[in-house]
Protein backbone atom coordinates (compact mmCIF):
# COMPACT_ATOMS: atom_id res chain seq x y z
CA UNK A 1 0.00 0.00 0.00
CA UNK A 2 2.81 2.41 0.91
CA UNK A 3 4.53 1.73 -2.41
CA UNK A 4 1.36 2.46 -4.38
CA UNK A 5 0.55 5.58 -2.37
CA UNK A 6 3.95 7.27 -2.35
CA UNK A 7 6.16 5.41 -4.81
CA UNK A 8 8.45 4.22 -2.02
CA UNK A 9 9.52 0.58 -2.41
CA UNK A 10 7.90 -1.49 0.31
CA UNK A 11 9.34 -4.36 2.26
CA UNK A 12 7.02 -7.11 1.08
CA UNK A 13 6.56 -10.60 2.49
CA UNK A 14 10.27 -11.39 2.43
CA UNK A 15 11.32 -8.44 4.58
CA UNK A 16 13.83 -9.38 7.25
CA UNK A 17 12.59 -6.59 9.51
CA UNK A 18 8.86 -6.15 8.94
CA UNK A 19 8.81 -2.88 10.85
CA UNK A 20 7.59 0.20 8.98
CA UNK A 21 10.36 2.72 8.34
CA UNK A 22 8.32 5.56 9.81
CA UNK A 23 8.28 3.76 13.18
CA UNK A 24 12.08 3.73 13.49
CA UNK A 25 13.03 6.99 11.78
CA UNK A 26 13.61 9.94 14.10
CA UNK A 27 14.67 13.51 13.59
CA UNK A 28 18.40 13.95 14.20
CA UNK A 29 19.07 15.10 17.74
CA UNK A 30 22.05 16.23 19.80
CA UNK A 31 23.47 13.22 21.59
CA UNK A 32 24.19 13.86 25.26
CA UNK A 33 27.87 13.55 26.18
CA UNK A 34 27.21 10.87 28.81
CA UNK A 35 25.65 8.39 26.35
CA UNK A 36 27.93 5.52 25.36
CA UNK A 37 28.92 5.57 21.70
CA UNK A 38 30.46 2.91 19.46
CA UNK A 39 30.63 1.91 15.81
CA UNK A 40 30.93 -1.20 13.68
CA UNK A 41 32.68 -1.69 10.39
CA UNK A 42 31.91 -3.91 7.41
CA UNK A 43 34.83 -3.88 4.98
CA UNK A 44 35.04 -4.64 1.29
CA UNK A 45 36.48 -3.23 -1.91
CA UNK A 46 33.18 -2.43 -3.62
CA UNK A 47 31.73 -0.97 -0.43
CA UNK A 48 33.02 -0.34 3.07
CA UNK A 49 30.50 0.82 5.61
CA UNK A 50 30.59 1.97 9.20
CA UNK A 51 27.64 2.70 11.44
CA UNK A 52 27.67 4.67 14.71
CA UNK A 53 25.32 4.15 17.60
CA UNK A 54 24.63 5.86 20.92
CA UNK A 55 22.70 4.33 23.81
CA UNK A 56 20.24 6.26 25.95
CA UNK A 57 20.94 4.60 29.33
CA UNK A 58 17.55 5.59 30.76
CA UNK A 59 15.37 4.14 28.02
CA UNK A 60 17.74 1.40 26.75
CA UNK A 61 17.16 2.83 23.27
CA UNK A 62 20.00 2.56 20.78
CA UNK A 63 20.15 5.43 18.28
CA UNK A 64 21.93 4.88 14.97
CA UNK A 65 23.20 8.37 14.25
CA UNK A 66 25.93 8.36 11.58
CA UNK A 67 27.13 6.31 8.65
CA UNK A 68 30.19 5.99 6.43
CA UNK A 69 29.48 4.44 3.04
CA UNK A 70 32.20 4.39 0.42
CA UNK A 71 33.51 2.02 -2.20
CA UNK A 72 36.83 1.42 -3.88
CA UNK A 73 39.04 3.27 -1.41
CA UNK A 74 42.04 2.27 0.62
CA UNK A 75 41.74 1.43 4.34
CA UNK A 76 43.50 4.67 5.28
CA UNK A 77 40.63 6.63 3.69
CA UNK A 78 38.05 4.70 5.70
CA UNK A 79 40.08 4.95 8.92
CA UNK A 80 40.41 8.72 8.52
CA UNK A 81 36.64 9.08 8.09
CA UNK A 82 36.00 6.89 11.14
CA UNK A 83 38.47 8.77 13.35
CA UNK A 84 36.88 12.08 12.33
CA UNK A 85 33.83 11.06 14.41
CA UNK A 86 35.95 10.54 17.52
CA UNK A 87 39.39 8.96 17.67
CA UNK A 88 38.64 7.71 21.19
CA UNK A 89 35.62 5.68 20.14
CA UNK A 90 35.62 1.89 20.27
CA UNK A 91 34.47 -0.11 17.31
CA UNK A 92 33.99 -3.61 16.01
CA UNK A 93 34.83 -5.32 12.75
CA UNK A 94 33.41 -8.45 11.15
CA UNK A 95 35.89 -11.32 11.60
CA UNK A 96 34.92 -12.74 8.20
CA UNK A 97 35.75 -9.42 6.50
CA UNK A 98 33.30 -9.86 3.60
CA UNK A 99 33.79 -13.58 3.05
CA UNK A 100 37.54 -13.57 2.88
CA UNK A 101 39.64 -16.32 4.41
CA UNK A 102 40.39 -16.12 8.14
CA UNK A 103 43.97 -15.18 7.28
CA UNK A 104 42.85 -12.26 5.10
CA UNK A 105 40.34 -11.19 7.73
CA UNK A 106 43.10 -11.15 10.36
CA UNK A 107 45.35 -9.10 8.07
CA UNK A 108 42.59 -6.55 7.47
CA UNK A 109 41.93 -6.36 11.20
CA UNK A 110 45.67 -5.80 11.84
CA UNK A 111 45.78 -3.17 9.11
CA UNK A 112 42.90 -1.18 10.61
CA UNK A 113 44.47 -1.52 14.08
CA UNK A 114 47.74 -0.15 12.66
CA UNK A 115 45.76 2.86 11.41
CA UNK A 116 44.97 3.57 15.08
CA UNK A 117 41.37 2.50 15.19
CA UNK A 118 40.24 1.12 18.56
CA UNK A 119 38.57 -1.95 17.08
CA UNK A 120 37.96 -5.50 18.07
CA UNK A 121 36.59 -8.53 16.28
CA UNK A 122 32.85 -8.89 16.89
CA UNK A 123 30.40 -11.75 16.98
CA UNK A 124 28.83 -11.86 13.53
CA UNK A 125 26.13 -14.47 14.22
CA UNK A 126 23.48 -14.05 11.58
CA UNK A 127 20.10 -15.45 12.68
CA UNK A 128 20.45 -14.65 16.39
CA UNK A 129 21.74 -11.20 15.45
CA UNK A 130 18.78 -10.59 13.16
CA UNK A 131 16.38 -11.50 15.95
CA UNK A 132 18.15 -9.16 18.38
CA UNK A 133 17.84 -6.27 15.91
CA UNK A 134 14.23 -7.13 15.11
CA UNK A 135 13.37 -7.29 18.82
CA UNK A 136 14.81 -3.79 19.37
CA UNK A 137 13.05 -2.43 16.29
CA UNK A 138 9.67 -3.88 17.20
CA UNK A 139 9.84 -2.69 20.83
CA UNK A 140 10.91 0.85 19.92
CA UNK A 141 14.40 0.45 21.38
CA UNK A 142 16.26 0.99 18.10
CA UNK A 143 15.83 4.31 16.32
CA UNK A 144 17.60 5.66 13.26
CA UNK A 145 18.35 9.28 12.47
CA UNK A 146 16.48 10.49 9.39
CA UNK A 147 19.76 11.70 7.85
CA UNK A 148 21.04 8.13 7.32
CA UNK A 149 20.02 7.85 3.68
CA UNK A 150 22.19 4.84 2.82
CA UNK A 151 20.87 2.95 5.84
CA UNK A 152 17.27 3.47 4.81
CA UNK A 153 18.01 2.56 1.18
CA UNK A 154 19.37 -0.79 2.37
CA UNK A 155 16.60 -1.25 4.96
CA UNK A 156 13.91 -1.00 2.28
CA UNK A 157 15.49 -3.80 0.25
CA UNK A 158 16.77 -6.09 3.02
CA UNK A 159 14.90 -9.33 2.48
CA UNK A 160 14.91 -13.08 2.13
CA UNK A 161 14.36 -15.02 -1.07
CA UNK A 162 11.55 -17.54 -1.55
CA UNK A 163 13.67 -20.21 0.19
CA UNK A 164 14.24 -18.05 3.25
CA UNK A 165 17.86 -17.15 2.45
CA UNK A 166 19.07 -13.62 3.04
CA UNK A 167 19.70 -11.79 -0.22
CA UNK A 168 23.32 -10.69 0.23
CA UNK A 169 23.23 -7.52 -1.86
CA UNK A 170 23.59 -3.95 -0.64
CA UNK A 171 23.47 -5.00 3.00
CA UNK A 172 26.64 -3.47 4.45
CA UNK A 173 24.90 -1.14 6.90
CA UNK A 174 22.38 -3.85 7.78
CA UNK A 175 25.34 -6.04 8.76
CA UNK A 176 26.83 -3.16 10.76
CA UNK A 177 23.54 -2.70 12.61
CA UNK A 178 23.49 -6.40 13.47
CA UNK A 179 27.08 -6.31 14.74
CA UNK A 180 26.34 -3.19 16.79
CA UNK A 181 23.24 -4.59 18.47
CA UNK A 182 24.70 -8.05 19.04
CA UNK A 183 27.98 -6.74 20.49
CA UNK A 184 26.94 -3.52 22.24
CA UNK A 185 27.95 -4.65 25.72
CA UNK A 186 31.40 -5.72 24.46
CA UNK A 187 32.29 -2.50 22.66
Describe the overall structure.
This protein has 187 residues and is α/β, with parallel strands linked by helices. The protein has seven helices and seven strands; from the N terminus they run H-H-E-E-E-E-H-E-H-E-H-E-H-H. The protein has helices at residues 2-6, 21-24, 75-83, 102-114, 127-138, 149-157, 172-183; strands at 25-26, 36-42, 48-56, 61-70, 90-93, 118-121, 142-145. Strands 1-7-4-3-2-5-6 form a seven-stranded mixed sheet. Helix 5 packs across helix 7. The longest helix is centred in the middle third of the chain and has 13 residues, at 102-114. The radius of gyration is 16 Å and the shape is globular. Mean pLDDT is 90; it is low at 1-13.
Helix vs. strand class: alpha/beta
Enumerate how many helices there are, as a single number: 7
Overall average pLDDT: 90
How does the major sheet shape up? Answer: 7 strands, mixed
The sequence of SSEs as H and E is HHEEEEHEHEHEHH
Amount of helix: 25-40%
Largest beta sheet: what is the strand line-up?
A: 1-7-4-3-2-5-6
Radius of gyration from CA coordinates? 16 Å
What is the CA-CA span between the terminal residues? 40 Å
**What amount of the residues lies in strands?**
15-25%
**Unreliable segments (pLDDT under 50, ≥5 consecutive)?**
1-13
- Number-wise, the strands total 7
Shape: globular
